[in-house]
Amino acid sequence: MSEITTDVVAHLANLARIALTPEEIEKLTGELGAIVDAVATVSEVATADVPATSHPIPLTNVFRADVPGPTLTTEQALAGAPEHDGTRFKVSAILGEEQ
User: Fold this and answer.
1) Looking at residues 89-96, what average pLDDT do you find?
2) Name one GO biological process term (predicted).
3) Residues in contact with 78: Cβ distance below 8 Å, sequence separation at least 6, in sequence order
4) Is 98's pLDDT higher than 90?
5) How many Cα atoms sit within 13 Å of 71 on the Cβ side?
6) What is the mean pLDDT of residues 46-68?
7) SS in 3 state form for the chain?
8) Whose CB among 11, 18, 25, 38 lies 3.0–4.6 Å from 56's, allowing a Cys bridge?
């Protein structure tokens, strides 16, 4: 069990000039405790009974599913463009490049 307490997290946040809510302090206490415990486990001699870990805190994918939906037609996309050639936006050349 790690020695990370809510008082330690609040003190560290104060030193770093980070304003944390009580809920954030509770969450960080658990996460920092898990990290300290993971480092302590890794610090021991690796044996067959010590499981490999890539991250001490379980992570989940925060991306939404990629679902195709309605899109703009070429004409709609180009409708507000200052310049276009009918299929693409026209922009000025940069860095001395030729058109």
Assistant:
1) 82
2) regulation of translational fidelity
3) 84, 86, 87, 89
4) no
5) 5
6) 77
7) CCCCCHHHHHHHHHHCCCCCCHHHHHHHHHHHHHHHHHHHHHHCCCCCCCCCCCCCCCCCCCCCCCCCCCCCCHHHHHCCCCCECCCCECCCCCCCCCC
8) 38
In tens, the pLDDT along 77-86 reads 999 999 999 9
Residue type, 17: R
What phi and psi, each to the nearest 5 degrees, are found at residue 84? -155, 165
- Bridge partners (DSSP) of residue 89 are 84
Partners of residue 84 on adjacent β-strands:
89
Q: Considering only CA atoms, which of 75, 77, 37 is closest in space to residue 57?
A: 37
| Most distant pair of Cα atoms in the chain: their distance | 67
